[in-house]
Amino acid sequence: MKHIINVSSRLPLAKVGDQIHKSSNTISLVMDSIMHEHDVWWIGWVDVHLEEYGERDKLSHELKQKYKYLPIFLENEEVENYFNGFSNSSLWPLLHYISTFSNYEENWYKSYLDVNKKFAGKVIEHARPDDLIWIHDYHLMLVPAFIKELKPDLKVGFFFHTPFPSYELFRCHPRREELLKGVLEADLIGFQTFGFLRHFRSTVLRVLGIESKVNSIMYKGHNTRIGVYPVGIDTKMTDHVRADESYKEIFKTYKKNFIDKNVILSIDHLDSSKGVLQKLMAIENFLRDYPEQREKVVFVIVAIPSREETGEYEHLTHDVEHAIGRINGIYSSLTNVPILFLNKRIPFKEVVALYTLADVALITPLVDGMNLMAKEYIYTKEGKEGVLILSEFAGASQELFNAIMVNPYNIDQVVDAIVQALEMDSAEKKNMMKSMLDRIKSNDALYWANSFIGDLDKLDPTNITEGNIKNLDVSVAKQFQNKSIKKALFLDYDGTLREFVNIPSQAVPGDELIDIFNKLTKRSDIDVYIISGRNKEFLEKHFGHYNFTLIGEHGYFLKEPNSKWKTLIGEIDMSWKNEISEILQLYSLSTPGTEIEEKNSALVWHYRRADPEFGTWKANELIGELTEVISNLPVEIHHGRKIVEVSSQYVNKGLAMARFLNEKKYELVLCAGDDKTDETMFYFEDIPLISVKIGNGETKAGYRISTPQQFRKFLTKIL
Q1: What is the predicted pLDDT for the residue at 117?
Q2: Is the dihedral of CA 46, 48, 49, 55 positive or negative?
Q3: In 3D, which of 367, 396, 392 has the Cα closest to residue 232?
Q4: Residues facing 269 on adjacent strands
Q5: For 341-381, what is each residue's pLDDT tens digit?
Q6: Of 3.40.1360.10, 3.30.450.20, 3.40.50.2000, 2.40.10.220, which CATH number belongs to 235-442?
Q7: What pLDDT is attached to residue 683?
Q8: To which H or E segment does residue 350 belong?
Q9: Main-chain phi, psi angles of 144, to 5 degrees
Q10: Over the stretch 548-598, which tens digit does the pLDDT of each residue have?
Q11: Which among 634, 629, 571, 581 is positioned nearest to 604, based on CA atoms?
């Protein structure tokens, strides 16, 4: 039995009379279903007026003993800024593609930061070493980072119940980088659909410049797994309701009230993402264009209040009520009102009764993380006829592929779908429902929870490598602390000692690196070689005053301490440059954000400032074209970090390094680099060599470390 700490913005509590009782929502139903398999505790905000219930300590004790709830208490200002402000008025609209409703205030973010720290603190207070931490949704995006800062060995999972939008939307948020970095500290990040996962990867690439695999992202030395986990429904709860006598009485009443009517049901939360106004336009057009159906059909719309604290809710409610009143005023008769509208929460047994009664479910959100109402409708219709009309923009559309799919913005298409559903014969209805029903039964809420928890439990939170490459650790540093043996460091610069920046000339040594270099100059037992693709002017300016050996242009130029620059090799054929330069110019013109750098021994096409995916695509295309051209030329192609370099085949870092290894018999050597141009340094086998790859990707190095920052920390340990 695993000990699980579930973390969500609110605890599922409701006021019943003078008491606080447990209430139901999607997450609570799932957690209830796994409690017989796991020891589940829950951290969340208590959304009640505490002054009615006495002291907080007393309430905390009661909730802990009764439900295993560990409450967070927020002040009114925190609720306003963190929940109503940052979470629901800033983040929620962007996540749901409603950027015009997204606002931002700096004090909102400060409160969001503080509240996320409170949640993380509560987790750390109660978590045991082997616990699984499961964090839910956009209200808590910074919590993983705060937990990992103090408890890096805890297994932390994060799940987005909402959509995750495209990069163009998410980049609009003023705190986009902080939010992404907060989530990336989790060991596992779950999404409802592959499309949302794809958007997240694209956003991480474009905002943070971090490339990823389809199922993982390497961040700060940590391999964060990402996956798709479509939320299912609690089928047992529906079964329990249908066995209840009170439900049966409710259904009989509804059936009597709607006798000889085709009931088209719409049930969803009332917010801008659900497309209620567009749905009403389709209903109005249907009633206008099909007058023979007006006495036969009734539309039952249940709009559950949602995000009532925002001004948007008040305006939307007014517009919806006005539209329904106008439509009913035009198309009602003495015997029929076409639209019945309920703007309130109703008990689940009444919802199930409506599902059972409805001939058609009209579920057409403009965007939705999943939409469990669609799944509940199909499950409830087992053994009965029914048709689901579903928006292609609902996450559930990825699974419920036999529904009638519509674009909710295409009003005529929605009208046609209503007509199609009403005219469909019984055999077709049953056939459409069967495959969807089978999937819902197999992928229920319990399956969803166990899938996520199972995958999280398998992960190693200390894993920072790919494959079987060792982590660079303290034991390696200790070897260099021995001052009695002669040692050497062969160090690349960009991407190894220093992070990349969009403008290469600005990638100058920072205070931390300067401090390391100053200390290295005092170590007579360590020879330092800066072996870089940079030109000699850059190396001279920033490193010429240290007693280091400088090797520029990947091994073409050399400057030893207290000497002048010289070439490492003699005269070489550079006549190929003109032909290659013409090709690079064409690609530079067709790829915005790229430029060409000419070196003495090489030509470099930089695409660091291009769109990441477009730049990579053009780079691969360029390499393909260059490969055909250079077959008879004395050059090599290197695809490095955001560069394509064509250089003389007589120049590489491995050849330059070999010269010094042959001249000086070192007892210990460390070489470090981040891209393919550095791989030639990793092939030496007959020397005591420690080879280090910085970052992701395939390598021949024996060790890996994630970032330049971590490598600088390693160098500090040496000293």
Answers
A1: 98
A2: negative
A3: 396
A4: 304
A5: 999 999 999 999 999 999 999 999 999 999 999 999 999 99
A6: 3.40.50.2000
A7: 85
A8: helix 348-357
A9: -55, -40
A10: 999 999 999 999 998 999 998 877 788 899 999 999 999 999 999 999 999
A11: 581
Per-residue pLDDT reduced to its tens digit, 270-296: 999 999 999 999 999 999 999 999 999
pLDDT of residue 468: 47
Give me the phi and psi of 33, to 5 degrees please: -70, -20
Return the biggest CA–CA distance within the chain: 104
Q: At what angle do helices 106-126 and 143-150 cross, to 10 degrees?
A: 50
| Contacts (Cβ under 8 Å, ≥6 apart) of 138 | 87, 91, 92, 95, 160, 162
Rg (CA), the chain: 32
CA–CA distances in Å: residue 480 to residues 30, 97, 397, 550, 587: 53, 53, 58, 21, 45
Task: Tell me which residues of the chain have a pLDDT lower than 70.
Answer: 16-18, 26, 48-54, 462-470
pLDDT of residue 660: 92
Instruction: Evaluate whether 3-228 and 470-569+651-718 have a shared fold.
Output: yes
Given the residues 271, 368, 492, 678, the one annotated as active site? 492
Please state the pTM of the whole predicted model: 0.85
Q: List 13's β-bridge partners, or say none.
A: 22
For 283, counting Cβ atoms within 10 Å of its Cβ (0-12 exposed, 13-18 middle, 19+ buried), the class is buried
Q: What is the dihedral of CA 612, 613, 614, 620, to 10 degrees?
A: 100
Query: Which regions of 194-243 does DSSP assign to beta strands (E)?
Result: 216-219, 222-228
**Residue whose structure tokens are 């750390």:** 124
**Contact call for residues 24 and 60 (beta carbons, < 8 A):** no
Is residue 114 flagged as an active site residue? no
For the domain covering 577-648, report its CATH number.
3.30.70.1020
Map tokens 């030329």 to a residue. Answer: 633
Using alpha carbons, select from 454, 6, 4, 394 the residue that is nearest to residue 162: 394
Q: 631 burial class (0-12, 13-18, 19+ CB within 10 angstroms)?
A: exposed
Question: Strands 3-10 and 470-471: what pairing?
Answer: unpaired
Report how far residue 252's alpha carbon sits from residue 241's, in angstroms, rounded to the nearest whole number: 14
Q: How far is residue 102's CA from residue 88's CA, in Å, rounded to a whole number? A: 9
Which single residue is written with the structure tokens 């032909």?
579
Instruction: Say how many residues make up the chain.
Output: 719
Token digits of residue 368: 């939705």
Report the C-alpha gap between 119 and 136 in whole angstroms: 12
Please report, as a single letter, which amino acid is at residue 483: K
> HEC profile for 470-524?
EECCHHHHHHHCCCCCCEEEEECCECCCECCCCCHHHCCCCHHHHHHHHHHCCCC
Least Cα distance to 391 among 274, 507, 505, 292 occurs for: 274
Q: Give me the residue spans of the domains in the chain.
A: 3-228, 235-442, 470-569+651-718, 577-648
> C-alpha distances in angstroms, 244 versus 237, 248, 250, 383?
11, 7, 10, 18
CATH code assigned to 3-228: 3.40.50.2000
Indicate the fold that domain 470-569+651-718 takes in CATH. Rossmann fold (3.40.50)
- Name the nearest CA neighbour of 493 among 448, 440, 465, 533: 533
CB count in 10 Å sphere of residue 85 = 24
**Cα(109)–Cα(107) distance, integer angstroms:** 5
Provide the pLDDT for residue 31: 77
- The rounded distance, in Å, linking the Cα atoms of 509 and 123 is 38
Burial class (CB in 10 A: 0-12, 13-18, 19+), 96: buried
